[in-house]
Amino acid sequence: MVKNHKLALSISDASWAKFVGMLEYKALWHDRVIQKVDTFYPSSQTCNHCGFVNPKVKDLKLREWSCPDCNDYNLRDENAALNILSEGLRILTAAVGASDALNAYGDEVRPGEIQEPVALTGSPA
Ligand SMILES: [Zn+2]
């Protein structure tokens, strides 16, 4: 990009900030939520199938890898995208704290047997 590393960093920071700003106003416009994930979250290194963190994947040249724990085949970017989605949803759920309040805590949620209709008139047959 730019030979001066500090200048390149400033330019990429400014562009990223502009991009995030555009995402935020568009999200607000369309009544959506933007959830940021920690910069140091190991999205590329974490297997999206089992959660195993593979430190060998820090090498950016390694574009695809098989998880030593579950043998799942991971494409670096696709794996990172899935992990970022999961992490963002996890953070949002924790922040809102509503997901548990909206479910039945493991109780039966299906209606029981269909019952006979109740007569509304009240007159004996
Ligand atoms: Zn795995």
What class do helices, strands and sheet pairing give?
mainly alpha
The number of helical elements comes to: 3
Q: Which molecules are bound in this entry?
A: zinc ion
Give me the Rg, rounded. Answer: 25 Å
Please state roughly what percent of the residues sit in beta strands, choosing from under 5%, 5-15%, 15-25%, 25-35%, 35-45% or over 45%: under 5%
Described by its quaternary structure, the protein is single chain
| Domains (count) | 2
Would you kindly provide a brief summary of this structure?
This protein has 125 residues and is mainly α. Helices cover 40% and strands 5% of the residues. It has two domains: 1-32; 35-98, no CATH class.
Report on the structure:
- The protein is mainly alpha-helical.
- It folds into two domains: 1-32; 35-98, no CATH class.
- The protein is built from three helices and two strands.
- The protein has helices at residues 5-29, 76-96, 99-102; strands at 64-66, 73-75.
- The chain has a two-stranded antiparallel sheet with strand order 1-2.
- A hairpin with a 6-residue loop joins strand 1 (64-66) and strand 2.
- The longest helix is centred in the N-terminal third of the chain and has 25 residues, at 5-29.
- It is flat.
- It starts with a helix and ends in a 23-residue tail after the last helix.
- The mean pLDDT is 82.
- The structure holds zinc ion (ZN).
- The site of zinc ion (ZN) has 8 residues, from loops.
What is the topology?
Layout lengths: L4 H25 L34 E3 L6 E3 H21 L2 H4 L23
Antiparallel strand pairs: 1-2
The protein binds zinc ion.
